[in-house]
Each structure stands twice: as structure tokens, then as C-alpha cells.
């Protein structure tokens, strides 16, 4: 039966489409702009968006499972429409920040998605990845223009995960049994500091890449200047500071689910070196 991928042009959803196709699953993709999406052949494309629930009934008709991108604002209406359509199974992208109390935490929206899906009574699975490796693409302009990485808390410890690994985990859960009611906390395979991530980018570029340590105030000002809300900037900085005292460790869940090693940050840096000017 067909699997609906919502947010099919999003940073994870687009990769979920590819992973499902690679597993031979029939895919229906929900997107607001099919031409821009450039989805591969064999995908049934439906125009619509989670942000516009009126577009969802046609997309939900005749599907068995849904990959649900996180959108707290409309998730309750999605659940109502999915229940009316008789959808039995929902795999929702959430986040490891669920349960964090900081006002700027992304965990509040993820928790809203989980509450709505759980209350609707679906056969559900929640995926909670931590930091995305792709977040460090924010360093790319500085690397290309100045040849340095600028960041606060160079010794902050993280377990970043590749978006493709998140998508692979989602596809695995969607096409196999045994995941009902489960919550999977996903991480990359290693603990690395921000300074070590910068060094990995330098290695991929084939040159030394200096790390310029910013003060928290300098980092906050840079983030706010490019449009990051102050509360979110404060939450991220607090997380970096906390990680030095409460060192996160890889969960190993991705490897158990998918049966292969997770992508290391060094491997990700090589694969994405063009973004940094390589």
C-alpha cells in the first residue's frame, strides 16, 4: 500500500522519498511546488501542504502509512483528517529536544506533534533525532569568504546525525513491522566537539581551517543579525554550555534499526565539501 510523505521537499522528507523508492515502496509525495521539487519518476505527486489542511483529504485517500513532518500549528487537524480517511499508521519526525523547558526550545513544537498523534490513537512511531550535521552549513559563508570557522563554545560536545541517516531510519520504520508505539532517539555514531567538526571540514578541503572562538555574546549577536530569534539563540547557546558538563553519548539506535554504521561527521564533511568551497 502507498506511503504518503508529507513535507516531501523538506530537508528530511525529500530524502525519505528516495529511501522508500530504494526499498521498492509505492510513494505519494505531498508538495506545494511539484516543478521545484523535481521528484523522481515513479513517485505519485499531490499538490498540497500540511500548512493548508484543506489540501490533505485528497492526499490521504487510499494510503496506508504517513511520514509526518513536524508542524505543530496544524497537527491536530491533520490527525482529524487522517482518522477520517482511515489511516492506521503514522511515523512522525520529532526531536531529541522534547521535554526541554527552555522557552526557545524546539522541543515544544515536537511535543505538540507527539501529543496530537498519540491522542488520535494511530499505530504510531516517533523519531527523535538530535543535532543535524547539516546545521554546520551555517559556517560555509565564513569558510568560503574568510577561510575560518567562527563559533562559540568550541569544546561543546555533540553527537550530530546526517539527514540521510534520519531518512533511512524513517524508511526502515515505515516498511518493516515491530515499531508500533516506539520512540527512537537517533544520533550520529560519534561524540565530537565543534572544534573537531571544523577540523574535519578543513581536512576535507585539504587545508588547515582556523577556528575563531567567539564569546557567547558575539555568537548571539551574529545569529540574531541573520534572523535567528533571540530566544532560540539563547536556547542553542545554553545547550552548548550544558554539553560540556553533561557529555552526550551516541544512542546506537540508528545502527540497530538500519543495520549499518551511521555516517561520521568526517564522512559528511567530505560529501558536502563543495558547500565550503572545495
CATH class of the largest domain: Alpha Beta
The CATH fourth-level homologous superfamily of the largest domain: NAD(P)-binding Rossmann-like Domain
User: Quick one: how many beta strands?
Assistant: 11
Q: Determine the oligomeric state from the structure.
A: single chain
Amount of helix: 40-55%
Number of domains: 2
Overall spatial form? globular
By CATH, the topology of the largest domain is: Rossmann fold
What class would the helix/strand composition place it in? alpha/beta
Structural features, described:
- This protein has 278 residues and is α/β, with parallel strands linked by helices.
- It folds into two domains: 2-129, Rossmann fold, CATH 3.40.50.720; 133-159 and 189-248 and 261-276, NAD(P)-binding Rossmann-like Domain (Rossmann fold), CATH 3.40.50.720.
- 41% of the residues lie in helices and 17% in strands.
- It has twelve helices and eleven strands.
- A seven-stranded parallel β-sheet has the order 3-2-1-4-5-6-9, with helices on both faces. Strands 7-11 form a two-stranded parallel sheet.
- Helix 5 links the parallel strand 5 and strand 6.
- Helix 1 packs across helix 7 and helix 9 (216-225) runs antiparallel to helix 10.
- The chain is globular.
- The mean pLDDT is 95.
